[in-house]
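Quick one: structure for this chain?
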Amino acid sequence: MKSKLALYGFNNLTKSLSFNIYDVCYAETERDKRDYIEYIDEQYNSDRLTGILCKVADIIGANILNISKQDYEPQGASVNVLIAEGPLPPHEIDETCNQGKLNGILLPKQTVHAHLDKSHISVHTYPEHHPDNAISTFRVDIDVSTCGKISPLNALDFLIRSFDSDIITIDYRVRGFTRDIYGKKYYIDHEIKSIQDYIDDSILRKYDAIDINVYQSNTFHTKMLIREINLDDYLFNQDADELPHDKRLEITDSLHKEMIEIFSGMNVYD
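Got it. Here's what it folds into:
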């Protein structure tokens, strides 16, 4: 397919990227578990997540129309960014849109999307811990949906580096069709064999990755699992050097099993 396609009207293809990561941690005591959740909530509050999504919009070349954000009790946060492929004339912008300007407290009417333009970016966080063992996890779900020429795939490296990503699941779908100037329908406007082609090699070397792709329906799926566990990166309020050798092996094994189950999407070791 030619890189430049002469279209009849607007590019009506919808490109949707679902980016899901898990960060796994070993927090041994009840106090450590609570502190881990509080730490994650502070590190990834709605303000920081808003900054990440605004950077995503900048990377893919989108213009921000509106931002709504919320921190939740007891934990978690959500941010939704309404974007457009190009800048809109001032008279076309809904007066309730904040255009990414989050100074002060937003009024209720500014935190509700009455409609979506054509594209949006959203993020939700889910910190949690196991009731009986020392494993805690932090999940992030990010959805980037665009119409037109801009592609959410261009933000993958930035998203992976923005979080401590032990397990990554990525889904990419192209839906709808657009027409060229002769009326011929195109169901995709770019070549793609794997999501991995859009991830930097320095990142891929750190993970084991598998693809499940359905080319006939323009659906692409990649799962990634961190290859090496450096125990100091996973202990909360503990130093690996202070632990006995057998305890380090036990903790590493429990972390590895948790990651394998999340990566597999099933209970393997019950």
